[in-house]
Amino acid sequence: MLYDLCEAKSIPHWRTKKWIIAQDEQQMQHLQDLHTFSKSIDVPTHFLSSREIQDREPDVRAEAGVLESPTTGIIDSHAFMAYLEGAFDEQGGDQVMNTIVTGIERLEGGDEGRGGGYAITTRSKDGAGGQDTITAEVVINSAGLGAIEISNMLMPAQRQRKAYFAKGTYFSYASGHPKPKTLLYPAPVPGLGGLGTHLTLDMAGRARFGPDVEWVDDPTDLTPNPARLKDAVDVIRSYLPSVDVGAIDLDYCGVRPKLGRTTGTYGKDGKGFADFYIKEEDGFPGFVNLLGIESPGLTSSLAIAELVEDMLYGENAKV
To answer: Which residues belong to any copy of the FAD dependent oxidoreductase domain (predicted)?
Structure first.
């Protein structure tokens, strides 16, 4: 779906493929579990032979094996978001920037179906201009780092959630060697809360590493932590031993919304993994929560939109 749009709208993209790399039998078993699960949901993956690994990425260390995702790739995320913004504007959408939601309540009455809808109270970020109220029959809570806070404004106490924030540091790489052409991921560590410090590429083929996982309480904390560098280097060298350690440096940070501290890694048959909570909440018709939408949320955005549209207006809609 995303590749089709990128091709139709001339959004730069590159089907790089992705390797998930195992160094021992235990890690190889995790890869086998992932392969089994991916087949169950029709996502293509396959194992590579030692010869294939050596021929394609000779600098990669993979003592036990490699699972390849042949359809994985990268896109120009800024160009993609610019397209979405333009499409939204063309359809008559209104954007209100620098505005904070301070309250939301369900309205009584209205016609059959979704009832009276919702009243959303907002204020400007700088506090000027007082408060405003927006009413809507349908509310899609896709507020990212603030989504759980907004959900808790409406949900009863027994259905409220705690927000968790995983700060991820990216590391730049100022060297031309080694120069992989594939996205490289270490085998997952159960309970880590992320996918390990992996190698990714930009549209120009430049490599960077990350993100790692650092649990924080403040989602606005975007300052790189120098103490994270050593552990990141150790992970990177486990699968790319010839990396120039002196060329690795702190780059920037992002923060991912999480549903818990042990989520974000998968086990057998996908069990133990929890993210992408997408639901029209029971007892609140027309209110759709999108919680824990972290990476690959942008990649999945078109599919999520299609799912939400079907949830609200498709054959199985509650109204």
So the answer is: 3-310
- Predicted confidence (pLDDT) per residue in 48-92, tens digit: 999 999 999 999 999 999 999 999 999 999 999 999 999 999 999
User: What per-residue confidence (pLDDT) applies to 128?
Assistant: 82
Torsion of CA 145, 148, 153, 156, to 10 degrees: 180
| Residue 19 clears pLDDT 90, i.e. is over it | yes
What is the phi/psi pair of residue 206, to 5°?
-80, 140
Length of the chain as a residue count: 319
For residue 299, what are its two tokens?
């990649």
What is the C-alpha to C-alpha distance for residues 229 and 212, in angstroms, rounded to an integer? Answer: 10
* Alpha-carbon span 23 to 270, nearest angstrom: 21
What are 246's two structure tokens? 């002196």
Asked if the domains 17-72+164-258 and 96-161+272-313 are classified in one and the same CATH topology, the answer is: no
127: pLDDT strictly greater than 90 = no
How far apart CA 54 and CA 26 sit, in angstroms, is: 22
- The CATH homologous superfamily for domain 96-161+272-313 is FAD/NAD(P)-binding domain (3.50.50.60)
107: left (phi over 0), alpha (psi -120 to 50) or beta: beta
Bond into 188 cis (ω within 30): no
What SS3 string covers 226-239? HHHHHHHHHHHHHH
17-72+164-258 homologous superfamily: D-Amino Acid Oxidase, subunit A, domain 2 (3.30.9.10)
| Residue percentage of the chain with pLDDT more than 90 | 85
Contacts made by residues 118-121, CB under 8 angstroms, sequence distance 24+? 118/154, 118/286, 118/287
Contact 275, 164 (CB under 8 A): no
For residue range 209-261, what is the model confidence (pLDDT) as tens digits? 999 999 999 999 999 999 999 999 999 999 999 999 999 999 999 999 999 88
Point out which residues pair with 168 in neighbouring strands. Answer: 254
